[in-house]
Fold Aminotransferase, class V.
Amino acid sequence: MIIQSFIPPRRTLMGPGPSDISPQVLQALSRPTVGHLDPSFIGMMDEVKALLKYAFQTENDFTIPISAPGSAGMEACFVNLIEPGDKVIVCRNGVFGERMRENVIRAGGIAEVVDDIWGEPVSIEKVEQAIKQHPDIKILAFVHAETSTGVRSDAESLGKLAKQHGILTIVDTVTSLGGITLKVDEWQLDAVYSGSQKCLSCTPGLAPVTFSPDAIEKIKSRQSQVRSWFLDQSLVLGYWSGEGKRSYHHTAPVNSLYALHESLLLLKNEGLEHAWRRHQDMHNLLRDGLEKLGFEFVVKADARLPQLNTVYVPEGVDEAKVRSHLLEQYNLEIGGGLGEFSGKAWRIGLMGYGARRENVSLCLKALEESLR
Amino acid sequence: MIIQSFIPPRRTLMGPGPSDISPQVLQALSRPTVGHLDPSFIGMMDEVKALLKYAFQTENDFTIPISAPGSAGMEACFVNLIEPGDKVIVCRNGVFGERMRENVIRAGGIAEVVDDIWGEPVSIEKVEQAIKQHPDIKILAFVHAETSTGVRSDAESLGKLAKQHGILTIVDTVTSLGGITLKVDEWQLDAVYSGSQKCLSCTPGLAPVTFSPDAIEKIKSRQSQVRSWFLDQSLVLGYWSGEGKRSYHHTAPVNSLYALHESLLLLKNEGLEHAWRRHQDMHNLLRDGLEKLGFEFVVKADARLPQLNTVYVPEGVDEAKVRSHLLEQYNLEIGGGLGEFSGKAWRIGLMGYGARRENVSLCLKALEESLR
């Protein structure tokens, strides 16, 4: 096997993530590596925390990026908040709800599943009923923006409902952070995780998380040790904490954090509300074009994610073949369906830096030509 | 707080890692991101596997980089191989042996600790005795190259001893891979993990691992589920496996893998044996210079790691002040002591791309000037 340097093709990324990345972020990524205990780096870590607080709209002091992908961010929330025997309501309306259920079980918890049809938002009524049915529920877990279906659930109502009942929430905002309205403090969410490679338009590999004071209290009052050493946030906190000497936990992914810093700075400079509006505007353009081409959306209009457009594959079309054609002929990536929608739907992302007019036009024209 | 793009200083990294990184690797890092299921990316993944097999000197099919730092690589080995109640001998002669013990306990295992003095290699005799004392031992865990002390243990003898007794080994090669002789197959090691940021001279954030057929058999015959979803290698395997359709597990850290590919390619092109010799040669130069300056090594000559030189801080010297001076005046990073050696020793790394003549000279001259 003769191996040479890998020179990737230049794609336009309009799948479910990773999303298109700004040249500025790629440039930041390749700046010279410094030590993970270098004073200059520690200053940058504080800025990353401040920028993440802004993105999450929270004052939570514990707001950091986990040094691993979004699924490790998910696991960090579950293993730290759940103790063996804890009962957890898991809302399942797509792939990531099911993954939450698996996390509950592996963390030693008991999962009470509230199912909704794929492509529909989590039903507040069903959750309310489940809370009444199980007065010993400790945690409510749900996905804000289901990456497998493109549906938005009402995180505000779910957060406030849980808080009324003294229940902690674990919320998946992997695809929502930076793309649609998300207000961690106002909505009273407790343990919230995301990913770097969606609407933040950073490279994949980091998982921003934030823990509310209530979540921290639960972690501090644990009777049993967290099952994961790497994800034990009481240890991680010593490394990211702003006061005194940083205690070594693991070697931070220095360069990836340069990129996250830059992508969060781009978001800050644009302004969150402006970014949310841009995602909506680009979605409207894409939606109009797709409907003109005869596409049908999986999700009804009022629960649709602007940053992830899930449409049914037209009848008689070999969906994998079209996606390969788009990739090979246009260097354009769109996503296939996942789980129940595998082979039946396409997922077209307009995330972060990818939510640009030229991307919408390219996608519409390339689809039109490819489906002829 | 006014935040601007982070422009890091240009350091010479001679601590315990991250190590100096070749400009070629930094360049690879910033190439355009492609989707993690892109055919071009999947071809690159196969090359990364092949290059890692070469670096580890193994034919193990399951040889991949975990999408998280070295400590997650450690955890991946422990959570996959240990089932609740399994007895594990843990050799502890530094910080990372103790971390192994914590991993055993969190994975539900029982740790039988074999202690050796910090700075001395693991005693084969003590391990042999422990095996005789505990006939129900399932796993032997030890560190090949202790990053906290700079000592090398005899991984070959320990690997073969364990195999004779039908015991699996978990071996930490975070600091050894690429820097000193390591032959996974010949030494019959079973679950071996490393880090990207030491002698591979890649950016921090990835953990190469390799599992022998015996280790895979143990994973496949587990009675209980792996406690971590993210690190469950039976799931990860589906993503990295060379045959058929890749099943989605998590979004791979695409750009970090570009960098790993490039750094492994540099190692392959140099040749492993040449790289090992270069580390030894540079160590000899540095050792001669340090001894001329009056430094004393913590580790005796025959167990010393060429890539990590641990020396006692001269009496009466404010060690933190000197390190700050080196960083501020020379942009040179050396490492402080860890654990028992905190405040008492310095750790000078000559790892991967950092094992260069100009680094040795800079370090010696800067130390000489700073200690005057």
Observations:
- Chain A touches chain B through 79 residues (CB under 8 Å).
- Chain A has a mean pLDDT of 96.
- Residues 272-292 of chain A form the longest helix (21 residues).
